[in-house]
C-alpha cells in the first residue's frame, strides 16, 4: 500500500505532471476523454467528528452556519455574562398575580460590574436560569420584565432536562470529579451516564440560543462562568468564528490522573479551547488544566512576558490566574446595618467569657465539617485548660437535595457533637454549637465579629471566601460596640485547609492538612493561644491583601486580559473546521496563501536548482505500516529524482544509519541525514558532521 504523499512524488519524478495538476480528477467514462482543458477540482478541508451523534441529534443549525457572522438586532459595546443562574431572586406575589424580582446582592456575578473601567461605557447583560419554577404561560412576560428592569435574559429549561443536566451530570459526574472523588462503585458517587451527558450538551445549547438572540458578534464580549457551561464555548464558536469568549472556572480543576477517567474528557477540553481566555483561581488549577491539554491533546503551553498561552490551530488561548475577592462596599454596608450592634451584643452575652472558634460551611461532603469537629475534640483532650472556655460554633448551611451521602454526613456530625458535649459539657457550657440552618447576612457578620478564629477544613474547595469576610468583619467599623475586653478589633486568626483556593493568598494563616486530626488540633490551639501582637500582625497583613484584591480588582484584571487576548481577532483569516466537539477555528495571517498543486508544479518546472528534503516514516512509507522496508517503487523514485542534475535530494530521519544505508545502498546519489542529522551521507560518502567528534579533535 502506498501513502498519498509518495505517490505524488513518484508522479513528479516520472514527469507525470498531469496527474498532479488535477489531483486524480479523471474524466468520465465513455469516449472523447480529452481532459487537457479541465480546470483543477477544488478540494475542501476534511471534517472530523469525535462524538458521532451528539451534535447531530441535538443541533438543527445548518452546516452553513459554521462561518456565519450575522449580527443580531441589539448592537453596542457590551459584556454578556453567562452563568447557570441569574443574579436575581424571583418569587410569585402573594396574591398569585404576577411575579416580583430583586437583585441577589450575595451573588458574585452581580458585583463583577464594579470592576468595569470607568472610561468604558459598557452595558452588562446577564444570561442564565432562574431559581424559580415559572409556568410556560408566564415565561414570555417574565423574560420581558427581566430584560427591561434588570437586563437579564432567562433560559427556561424543561424540568426533566434541568434534573438530568444539573442534578445528573453536574452534581453526579462533574462535581465529585473536580473534588477528587471517583465512582469506584455504583453506591459511591455517580457513574457516568450517557443520557446525562446528552442532557448537559442540550442545556448548554439552549443557553447558547439565548445568548445568540441578543448577541452582536462584532462588538460584544461573552464571559462564561463555571463548570455548568463547559460545552457552551463550542456552540458559540461554531456559530461566530471571531466572537470574543472568556471563561472562568470557580471550582477546582482536578489533576490529569483523575480527569483522564472522564469518558468525555477530550470533548470538554476542546470546548474550553474555543475560548480566548480561560481563568482559574490558583496556579495549581491552571497547571492541572495545562497538563491535561498536553497529555490528552498533545498541546503544550508557552510562557512569554508573564503571560501563559496555548497555540490551538493558530489561535492563542490565554490562561489567567487570578483568585476572586469579596465586594468590600457591600460587606461594609452590612456592617453598618442598625441591628448588627444588637446581634453582636446578644452573641457576646451568649458566649460571655468564652473563646469562640467559628466554622461557616455548606453541609457538603467536601467541606470537612466532620474532620473539624474531631480536631476540636482532640484539642480539648490535648489541652484540658480550654475545657469550659473554648467553644466551636459551626454554621452548616443546608444544601438542596437529599442525597444519601449528605444524610449520612449530617447524622455523623450530629452524633459527634452530642458525644463531645456529653463528655466535656457542663451546665451553661456546650463545647460545640451546631447551627444547622441558613443565617441572614447580618447574623453571619455578627458571628464573624465575635469569633477569635475562623477554621476552614475543606478537603477540596474552589475558592471559599469565608476567611475574607471574617477578616473584614474583624477590622471593625467605627461606631460598632467594641466591648469584649480581650477581643479588640483589628485582630484575627485563621486556620485554613491547604486544599482550598484562598489558601495561597493568605500567607499569614495557619495552613493544615485537614486529614491530620492531631495537626489541625494543634493549629486550633495555636490560633487562640497566640499573643495579641501576633494576632494583630497577621490580621493587618491579611486585611491589606483582602481590601486591595476585591471582586472589582478581579473583574477589572480579567477584562483587561480578555481585551488583550482578543486584539488579533480581525487581523487573521479564520476557517471553521470539524464536527461536534471536534470543531475548531483555524486562524492564519491575512497574508497567508494556501499552497496548491498547480503552483508547486509551476515552480518546479521553472526552478534551476532544487533541494528536496524528505522524511521517511509518514512520507515515504505510511505510519501504520508494520514493515518499514521501502519497496522497489520507492527506491526507483529516489533514483529518478536524483538523476535530475537540478535536484539535491536528502532523506532526513530519526532512524539509524545502518537501516537507512541498507535500504538505500542502491541510491548512491541520495543524501541521508540519519539520526536527525547526527550522521550525514552525501554522494555515497559520510561527512564528518558529528559535532562532538569535531570538538574532541580540536
Automatic annotation (TrEMBL):
<dbReference type="GO" id="GO:0005829">
    <property type="term" value="C:cytosol"/>
</dbReference>
<comment type="similarity">
    <text>In the N-terminal section; belongs to the glycosyltransferase 20 family.</text>
</comment>
<dbReference type="GO" id="GO:0016757">
    <property type="term" value="F:glycosyltransferase activity"/>
</dbReference>
<dbReference type="GO" id="GO:0004805">
    <property type="term" value="F:trehalose-phosphatase activity"/>
</dbReference>
<dbReference type="Pfam" id="PF02358">
    <property type="entry name" value="Trehalose_PPase"/>
</dbReference>
<dbReference type="InterPro" id="IPR003337">
    <property type="entry name" value="Trehalose_PPase"/>
</dbReference>
<dbReference type="InterPro" id="IPR001830">
    <property type="entry name" value="Glyco_trans_20"/>
</dbReference>
<dbReference type="Pfam" id="PF00982">
    <property type="entry name" value="Glyco_transf_20"/>
</dbReference>
<dbReference type="InterPro" id="IPR036412">
    <property type="entry name" value="HAD-like_sf"/>
</dbReference>
<keyword id="KW-0808">Transferase</keyword>
<feature type="compositionally biased region" description="Gly residues">
    <location>
        <begin position="28"/>
        <end position="38"/>
    </location>
</feature>
<protein>
    <submittedName>
        <fullName>Uncharacterized protein</fullName>
    </submittedName>
</protein>
<dbReference type="GO" id="GO:0005992">
    <property type="term" value="P:trehalose biosynthetic process"/>
</dbReference>
<feature type="region of interest" description="Disordered">
    <location>
        <begin position="28"/>
        <end position="57"/>
    </location>
</feature>
<keyword id="KW-0328">Glycosyltransferase</keyword>
<dbReference type="InterPro" id="IPR023214">
    <property type="entry name" value="HAD_sf"/>
</dbReference>
Amino acid at each position: 500500500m502506498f501513502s498519498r504523499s509518495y505517490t505524488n512524488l513518484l508522479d513528479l519524478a516520472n514527469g507525470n505532471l498531469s496527474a498532479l495538476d488535477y489531483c486524480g480528477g479523471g474524466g468520465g467514462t465513455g469516449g472523447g476523454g480529452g481532459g487537457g482543458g479541465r480546470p483543477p477540482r477544488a478540494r475542501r478541508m476534511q471534517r472530523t467528528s469525535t462524538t458521532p451523534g451528539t451534535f447531530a441529534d441535538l443541533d438543527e443549525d445548518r452546516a452553513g452556519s459554521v462561518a456565519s457572522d450575522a449580527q443580531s438586532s441589539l448592537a453596542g459595546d457590551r459584556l454578556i455574562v453567562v452563568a447557570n443562574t441569574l443574579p436575581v431572586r424571583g418569587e410569585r406575589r402573594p396574591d398569585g398575580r404576577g411575579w416580583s424580582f430583586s437583585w441577589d446582592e450575595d451573588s458574585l456575578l452581580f458585583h463583577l460590574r464594579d470592576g468595569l473601567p470607568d472610561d468604558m461605557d459598557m452595558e452588562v447583560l446577564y444570561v442564565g436560569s432562574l431559581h424559580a419554577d415559572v409556568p410556560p404561560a408566564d415565561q414570555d412576560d417574565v423574560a420581558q420584565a427581566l430584560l427591561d428592569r434588570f437586563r437579564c435574559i432567562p433560559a427556561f429549561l424543561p424540568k426533566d432536562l434541568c434534573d438530568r443536566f444539573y442534578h445528573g451530570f453536574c452534581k453526579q459526574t462533574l462535581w465529585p470529579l473536580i473534588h477528587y472523588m471517583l465512582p469506584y462503585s455504583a453506591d459511591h458517587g455517580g457513574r457516568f451516564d450517557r443520557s446525562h451527558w446528552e442532557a448537559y450538551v442540550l442545556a448548554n445549547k439552549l443557553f447558547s440560543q439565548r445568548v445568540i438572540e441578543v448577541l452582536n458578534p462584532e462588538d460584544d464580549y461573552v464571559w462564561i462562568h463555571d463548570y455548568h457551561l463547559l460545552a457552551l464555548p463550542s456552540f458559540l464558536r461554531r456559530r461566530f468564528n471571531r466572537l470574543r469568549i472568556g471563561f472562568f472556572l470557580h471550582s477546582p480543576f482536578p489533576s490529569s490522573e483523575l480527569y483522564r477517567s472522564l469518558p468525555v474528557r477530550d470533548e470538554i477540553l476542546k470546548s474550553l479551547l474555543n475560548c480566548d481566555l480561560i481563568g482559574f483561581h490558583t496556579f495549581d488549577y491552571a497547571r492541572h488544566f495545562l497538563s491535561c491539554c498536553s497529555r490528552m491533546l498533545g498541546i503544550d503551553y508557552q510562557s512569554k512576558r508573564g503571560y501563559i498561552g496555548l497555540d490551538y490551530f493558530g489561535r492563542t488561548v490565554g490562561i489567567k490566574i487570578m483568585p476572586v475577592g469579596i465586594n468590600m462596599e457591600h460587606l461594609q454596608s452590612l456592617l453598618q446595618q442598625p441591628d448588627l450592634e444588637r446581634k453582636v451584643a446578644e452573641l457576646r452575652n451568649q458566649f460571655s467569657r468564652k473563646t469562640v472558634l467559628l466554622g461557616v460551611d455548606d453541609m457538603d461532603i467536601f467541606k470537612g465539617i466532620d474532620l473539624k469537629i474531631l480536631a476540636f475534640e482532640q484539642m480539648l483532650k490535648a489541652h484540658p485548660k480550654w475545657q469550659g472556655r473554648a467553644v466551636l460554633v459551626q454554621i452548616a448551611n443546608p444544601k438542596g437535595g437529599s442525597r444519601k451521602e449528605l444524610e449520612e454526613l449530617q447524622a455523623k456530625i450530629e452524633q459527634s457533637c452530642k458525644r463531645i458535649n456529653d463528655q466535656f459539657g457542663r451546665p451553661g457550657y456546650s463545647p460545640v454549637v451546631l447551627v444547622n440552618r441558613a443565617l441572614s447576612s447580618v447574623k453571619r457578620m455578627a458571628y464573624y465579629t465575635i469569633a477569635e478564629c475562623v477554621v476552614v477544613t475543606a478537603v477540596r474547595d474552589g475558592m471559599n471566601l469565608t476567611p475574607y469576610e471574617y477578616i473584614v468583619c474583624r477590622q471593625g467599623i467605627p461606631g460598632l460596640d467594641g466591648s469584649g475586653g480581650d477581643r479588640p478589633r483589628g485582630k484575627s486568626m485563621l486556620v485554613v485547609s491547604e486544599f482550598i483556593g484562598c489558601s495561597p493568598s493568605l500567607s499569614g494563616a495557619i495552613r493544615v492538612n485537614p486529614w491530620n486530626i492531631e495537626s489541625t488540633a494543634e493549629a486550633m490551639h495555636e490560633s487562640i493561644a497566640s499573643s495579641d501582637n501576633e494576632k494583630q500582625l497577621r490580621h493587618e497583613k491579611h486585611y491589606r491583601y483582602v481590601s486591595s484584591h476585591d471582586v472589582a480588582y478581579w473583574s477589572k484584571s480579567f477584562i483587561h486580559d480578555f481585551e488583550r487576548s482578543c486584539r488579533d481577532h480581525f487581523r487573521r483569516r479564520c476557517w471553521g473546521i470539524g464536527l461536534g466537539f471536534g470543531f475548531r477555528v483555524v486562524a492564519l495571517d491575512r497574508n497567508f496563501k494556501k499552497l496548491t498543486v498547480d503552483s508547486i508544479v509551476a515552480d518546479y518546472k521553472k526552478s534551476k536548482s532544487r533541494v528536496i528534503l524528505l522524511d521517511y516514516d509518514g512520507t515515504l512509507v505510511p505510519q501504520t505500516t508494520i514493515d518499514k522496508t521501502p519497496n522497489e517503487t520507492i527506491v526507483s523514485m529516489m533514483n529518478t529524482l536524483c538523476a535530475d542534475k537540478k535536484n539535491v535530494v536528502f532523506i532526513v530521519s530519526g532512524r539509524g544509519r545502518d537501516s537507512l544505508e541498507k535500504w538505500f545502498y542502491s541510491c548512491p546519489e541520495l543524501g541521508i541525514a540519519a539520526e536527525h542529522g547526527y550522521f550525514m551521507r552525501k554522494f555515497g560518502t559520510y561527512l564528518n558532521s558529528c559535532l562532538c567528534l569535531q570538538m574532541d579533535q580540536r
